[in-house]
């Protein structure tokens, strides 16, 4: 994008291309990844992205995606105990759970 | 110090790639510049997410006057003897080495909104395209008659971390058996709503553990009620008997004055003389840099757009954390860290064209009452009717099992490790 190369860009009024990106909901796999990344940013306040855990809050990286979605779904239906996770899961749609499962499932533990 | 091209290349070798969609990284001159003021849970998180997720497309500078970050959250656990002081101290180095953030160790003293520059105490000026302000709170030293900045050693607040935190512990250690601690709690809105009551719990825990069970803690509160009151008070009685006494305004009839020289506290109802230790937690407001820039009314906090965390006064400026009015979200580290992610997403969208999504917010506040006995309160929030509104909340229940309380404390400990990793690594 040419405007990123400007010497001292005074403003960042969006170009036509960028405006289209913002205006339309991102579609397809790339959009799911971006959604997954944004939603995941909320999780990493409690679940370390490295996979490290001191016990009280479990690691959530590298899970099989079906298992991840099932866990969130169980919290959302209050079939699984834990008021914090129940509240979080209650507002996640199935698509959002899937996006999160894909995002975290792809991460490998850091030593 | 500015990140070199080599630093950026090395840093992003380790940056996480999964799930990030953004414009290709552009190195060198001409990148959009974001300056972040304040290296706490709002600022450090915003700086990291902006730098990491833009993969170098945004030049991020973090201005923080302290060499290390000493967390106010969990400082009560240090006071209670549950953590060593070193455990609440953190370094900023990884933000530079991993993400190419330019760390400026200086005090930001002024915002020149017309020229879009941050002015530092040494006179240097940092130009910005967007500014993230996360300066925390300032204390209203005139909010308790007889108390002042000069009195904050004799009657510490411990509401900003560092020396004040350690002073609180020193004063606690010097309380004799049978001595009286008076805590003056703050009026709303203030940093960390359950904080004073967690601290009173920690006082009682230390006194009881050290054989000083005849000491007592009197909380004088300008508020009619306090966060998690229905859960704290039965637990105090269970754990500490009559050691902690809470007095609301109807009982004490007004906090009249304090005398730091004699350790006296005068209320409409009673005078407490020769107090072993008086902990004054005063009224609070946004950090001066935000107020001086016209982003908050005198003595107040900054109003923000709930969908973006932008100041309603200046759309090039984001205000995070304790310095802003975040609607139903309390002033907490969790909230600041959470708001920072919305802000980073919004700014990346504006500056690099990356996708944006509707803002959503979450908070949990944990409070330790006694060993393996913690309680929590929290909720999820969304922009509604021009403010950040609570959609669903949860709170610990009185009479919960010991196992639930133990698990709540285990969560608390794990959360601290996670938020610090999120902020600093």
UniProtKB/TrEMBL annotation, chain A:
<dbReference type="GO" id="GO:0020037">
    <property type="term" value="F:heme binding"/>
</dbReference>
<keyword id="KW-0479">Metal-binding</keyword>
<keyword id="KW-0732">Signal</keyword>
<dbReference type="InterPro" id="IPR036909">
    <property type="entry name" value="Cyt_c-like_dom_sf"/>
</dbReference>
<dbReference type="Pfam" id="PF00034">
    <property type="entry name" value="Cytochrom_C"/>
</dbReference>
<keyword id="KW-0349">Heme</keyword>
<protein>
    <recommendedName>
        <fullName>Cytochrome c domain-containing protein</fullName>
    </recommendedName>
</protein>
<dbReference type="GO" id="GO:0009055">
    <property type="term" value="F:electron transfer activity"/>
</dbReference>
<feature type="domain" description="Cytochrome c">
    <location>
        <begin position="31"/>
        <end position="108"/>
    </location>
</feature>
<dbReference type="InterPro" id="IPR009056">
    <property type="entry name" value="Cyt_c-like_dom"/>
</dbReference>
<keyword id="KW-0408">Iron</keyword>
<dbReference type="GO" id="GO:0046872">
    <property type="term" value="F:metal ion binding"/>
</dbReference>
<feature type="signal peptide">
    <location>
        <begin position="1"/>
        <end position="29"/>
    </location>
</feature>
UniProtKB/TrEMBL annotation, chain B:
<feature type="domain" description="FAD/NAD(P)-binding">
    <location>
        <begin position="33"/>
        <end position="137"/>
    </location>
</feature>
<keyword id="KW-0274">FAD</keyword>
<feature type="domain" description="Flavocytochrome c sulphide dehydrogenase flavin-binding">
    <location>
        <begin position="359"/>
        <end position="424"/>
    </location>
</feature>
<protein>
    <submittedName>
        <fullName>Flavocytochrome C</fullName>
    </submittedName>
</protein>
<dbReference type="InterPro" id="IPR036188">
    <property type="entry name" value="FAD/NAD-bd_sf"/>
</dbReference>
<dbReference type="InterPro" id="IPR037092">
    <property type="entry name" value="FlavoCytC_S_DH_flav-bd_sf"/>
</dbReference>
<dbReference type="InterPro" id="IPR015323">
    <property type="entry name" value="FlavoCytC_S_DH_flav-bd"/>
</dbReference>
<keyword id="KW-0285">Flavoprotein</keyword>
<dbReference type="InterPro" id="IPR006311">
    <property type="entry name" value="TAT_signal"/>
</dbReference>
<feature type="domain" description="Sulfide dehydrogenase [flavocytochrome c] flavoprotein chain central">
    <location>
        <begin position="165"/>
        <end position="282"/>
    </location>
</feature>
<dbReference type="InterPro" id="IPR052541">
    <property type="entry name" value="SQRD"/>
</dbReference>
<dbReference type="GO" id="GO:0050660">
    <property type="term" value="F:flavin adenine dinucleotide binding"/>
</dbReference>
<dbReference type="Pfam" id="PF09242">
    <property type="entry name" value="FCSD-flav_bind"/>
</dbReference>
<dbReference type="InterPro" id="IPR023753">
    <property type="entry name" value="FAD/NAD-binding_dom"/>
</dbReference>
<dbReference type="InterPro" id="IPR016156">
    <property type="entry name" value="FAD/NAD-linked_Rdtase_dimer_sf"/>
</dbReference>
<dbReference type="GO" id="GO:0016491">
    <property type="term" value="F:oxidoreductase activity"/>
</dbReference>
<dbReference type="Pfam" id="PF07992">
    <property type="entry name" value="Pyr_redox_2"/>
</dbReference>
<dbReference type="InterPro" id="IPR049386">
    <property type="entry name" value="FCSD_central"/>
</dbReference>
<dbReference type="Pfam" id="PF21706">
    <property type="entry name" value="FCSD_central"/>
</dbReference>
């Amino acid at each position: 994008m040419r405007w990123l190369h400007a010497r001292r860009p005074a403003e960042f009024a969006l170009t036509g291309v960028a405006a289209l990106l913002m205006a339309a909901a991102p579609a397809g796999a790339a959009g799911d990844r971006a959604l997954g990344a944004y939603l995941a940013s909320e999780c990493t306040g409690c679940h370390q992205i490295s996979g490290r855990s001191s016990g009280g809050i479990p690691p959530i990286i590298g899970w099989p995606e079906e298992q991840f979605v099932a866990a969130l779904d169980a919290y959302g239906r209050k079939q699984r105990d834990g008021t914090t996770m129940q509240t979080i899961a209650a507002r996640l749609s199935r698509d959002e759970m899937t996006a999160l499962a894909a995002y975290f499932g792809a991460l490998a533990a850091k030593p | 110090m500015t990140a070199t091209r080599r630093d950026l290349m090395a840093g992003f070798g380790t940056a996480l790639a999964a799930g990030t969609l953004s414009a290709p990284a552009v190195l060198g001159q001409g990148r959009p510049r974001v300056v972040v003021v304040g290296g706490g849970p709002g600022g450090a998180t915003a700086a990291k997410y902006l730098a990491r997720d833009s993969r170098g497309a945004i030049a991020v500078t973090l201005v923080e006057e302290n060499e290390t970050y000493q967390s106010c959250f969990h400082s009560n656990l240090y006071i209670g003897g549950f953590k060593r002081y070193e455990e609440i101290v953190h370094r900023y180095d990884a933000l530079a080495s991993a993400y190419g953030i330019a760390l400026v160790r200086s005090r930001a003293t002024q915002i020149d909104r017309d020229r879009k520059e941050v002015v530092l105490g040494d006179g240097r000026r940092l130009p910005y395209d967007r500014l993230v302000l996360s300066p925390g709170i300032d204390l209203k030293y005139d909010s308790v008659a007889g108390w002042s900045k000069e009195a904050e050693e004799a009657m510490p607040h411990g509401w900003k971390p560092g020396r004040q935190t350690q002073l609180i512990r020193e004063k606690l250690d010097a309380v004799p058996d049978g001595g009286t601690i008076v805590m003056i709690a703050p009026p709303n809105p203030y940093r960390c709503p359950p904080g004073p009551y967690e601290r009173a719990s920690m006082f009682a825990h230390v006194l009881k553990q050290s054989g000083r069970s005849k000491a007592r803690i009197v909380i004088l509160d300008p508020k009619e009620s306090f966060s998690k009151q229905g859960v704290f008070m039965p637990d105090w009685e269970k754990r500490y008997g009559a050691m902690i006494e809470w007095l609301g305004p109807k009982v004490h009839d007004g906090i009249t004055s304090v005398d730091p020289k004699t350790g006296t506290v005068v209320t409409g109802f009673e005078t407490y003389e020769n107090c072993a230790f008086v902990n004054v937690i005063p009224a609070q407001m946004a950090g001066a840099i935000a107020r001086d820039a016209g982003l908050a009314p005198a003595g107040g906090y900054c109003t923000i757009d709930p969908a973006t965390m932008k100041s309603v006064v200046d759309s090039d400026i984001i205000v995070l954390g304790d310095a802003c009015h975040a609607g139903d979200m309390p002033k907490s580290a969790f909230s600041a860290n959470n708001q920072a992610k919305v802000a980073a997403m919004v700014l990346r969208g504006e500056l690099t064209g990356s996708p944006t999504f509707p803002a959503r917010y979450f908070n949990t506040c944990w409070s330790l009452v006694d060993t393996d006995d913690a309680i929590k309160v929290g909720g999820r929030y969304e922009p509604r009717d021009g403010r950040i509104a609570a959609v669903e909340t949860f709170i610990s229940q009185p009479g919960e099992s010991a196992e639930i309380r133990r698990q709540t404390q285990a969560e608390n400990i794990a959360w601290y490790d996670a938020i610090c990793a999120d902020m600093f690594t």
